[in-house]
C-alpha cells in the first residue's frame, strides 16, 4: 500500500468519524472504521489499520471501574475461546478470496444495525446452553480473524448476561482489547501486517482520540437516541453496499 497524502487524509477522516461515534454512544469505532475503510482500501488493510486505535481507545474502558477481576473470573472461558480462534480466522483470511469475506463483513454489519434498530433480541439465542460461553467465544474469535469485527455474537452474548451497565461497558472493552491484540499478532504471523500499515495504524490513534473528544462534547448537545438511529441506519446502508459489491465484483 502506498502511503500517499490522499490515503493519509482518508484514514485520518475515517478515525475522526469513528471516534465521534464512540464518543457519543460509547462504542462503534471498529465497526465504523471497518465499514468505511473496507470500501476503499480492502478488508485486510482495513483490519490492520484499526488495530492500534481500537486497542488504545478500549484499554481505558477495560480498566476503568472496579469489576475487572470479576469480569475475568466470570468470562474467562468466553474470552479464552475468542482469543484462540482468532488465529483460525486469520488463517482463513490469508487463504480465501477476500471478496467473500468482505461480503461476510457486510452481512455482520447489517445484522448488527438491524438488531439495534429493531431490538430483535438475539441475546436470548446466543445465551442458551451450558456451553454458551466457549461456543460464543469461539465464533466471535473466528469472525474477528476473518473480518476484524468482534461485534457478533460477542456483544450480543455479553448483553444477554444481564450485567450492570458499567460492568457491561467494561466487559466489552476487555473483549475488544484481547481480540484485537490477538488479531494483530496473528496477522503479523501470516504476513498480513506490514511495517507501513502498523505505523499508519499507530498514527491513526491521534485522530481517533480527537474524534472521541469531539463526540463526548457533542453528546451533551445531541439526542443519543436520535444519533444512534442515524448511526445504525448508516451502518445498514454500508453493510448492504459491502455485500452487494462482493456479489457483483
UniProtKB/TrEMBL annotation:
<comment type="similarity">
    <text>Belongs to the 4-toluene sulfonate uptake permease (TSUP) (TC 2.A.102) family.</text>
</comment>
<dbReference type="InterPro" id="IPR002781">
    <property type="entry name" value="TM_pro_TauE-like"/>
</dbReference>
<feature type="transmembrane region" description="Helical">
    <location>
        <begin position="167"/>
        <end position="185"/>
    </location>
</feature>
<keyword id="KW-0812">Transmembrane</keyword>
<keyword id="KW-0472">Membrane</keyword>
<dbReference type="Pfam" id="PF01925">
    <property type="entry name" value="TauE"/>
</dbReference>
<keyword id="KW-1133">Transmembrane helix</keyword>
<feature type="transmembrane region" description="Helical">
    <location>
        <begin position="75"/>
        <end position="94"/>
    </location>
</feature>
<feature type="transmembrane region" description="Helical">
    <location>
        <begin position="100"/>
        <end position="122"/>
    </location>
</feature>
<feature type="transmembrane region" description="Helical">
    <location>
        <begin position="45"/>
        <end position="63"/>
    </location>
</feature>
<feature type="transmembrane region" description="Helical">
    <location>
        <begin position="134"/>
        <end position="155"/>
    </location>
</feature>
<keyword id="KW-1003">Cell membrane</keyword>
<dbReference type="InterPro" id="IPR052017">
    <property type="entry name" value="TSUP"/>
</dbReference>
<keyword id="KW-0813">Transport</keyword>
<feature type="transmembrane region" description="Helical">
    <location>
        <begin position="197"/>
        <end position="214"/>
    </location>
</feature>
<protein>
    <recommendedName>
        <fullName>Probable membrane transporter protein</fullName>
    </recommendedName>
</protein>
<feature type="transmembrane region" description="Helical">
    <location>
        <begin position="226"/>
        <end position="244"/>
    </location>
</feature>
Amino acid at each position: 500500500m502506498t502511503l500517499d497524502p490522499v490515503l493519509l487524509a482518508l484514514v485520518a477522516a475515517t478515525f475522526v468519524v469513528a471516534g465521534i461515534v464512540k464518543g457519543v454512544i460509547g462504542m462503534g469505532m471498529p465497526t465504523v472504521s471497518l465499514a468505511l475503510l473496507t470500501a476503499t482500501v480492502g478488508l485486510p488493510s482495513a483490519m490492520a489499520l484499526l488495530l492500534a486505535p481500537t486497542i488504545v481507545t478500549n484499554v481505558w474502558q477495560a480498566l476503568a471501574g472496579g469489576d475487572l477481576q470479576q469480569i475475568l473470573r466470570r468470562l474467562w472461558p468466553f474470552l479464552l475461546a475468542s482469543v484462540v480462534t482468532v488465529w483460525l480466522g486469520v488463517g482463513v483470511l490469508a487463504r480465501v478470496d477476500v471478496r467473500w469475506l468482505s461480503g461476510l463483513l457486510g452481512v455482520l454489519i447489517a445484522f448488527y444495525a438491524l438488531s439495534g434498530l429493531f431490538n430483535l433480541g438475539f441475546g436470548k439465542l446466543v445465551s442458551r446452553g451450558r456451553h454458551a460461553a466457549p461456543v460464543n467465544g469461539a465464533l466471535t474469535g473466528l469472525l474477528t480473524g476473518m473480518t476484524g469485527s468482534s461485534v457478533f455474537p460477542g456483544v450480543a452474548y455479553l448483553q444477554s448476561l444481564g450485567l450492570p451497565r458499567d460492568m457491561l461497558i467494561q466487559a466489552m472493552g476487555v473483549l475488544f482489547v484481547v481480540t484485537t491484540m490477538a488479531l494483530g499478532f496473528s496477522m503479523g504471523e501470516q504476513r498480513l501486517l506490514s511495517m507501513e500499515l502498523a505505523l499508519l495504524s499507530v498514527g491513526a490513534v491521534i485522530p481517533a482520540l480527537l474524534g472521541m473528544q469531539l463526540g463526548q462534547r457533542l453528546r451533551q448537545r445531541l439526542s443519543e437516541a436520535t444519533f444512534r438511529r442515524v448511526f445504525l441506519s448508516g451502518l445498514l446502508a454500508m453493510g448492504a453496499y459491502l455485500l452487494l459489491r462482493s456479489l457483483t465484483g
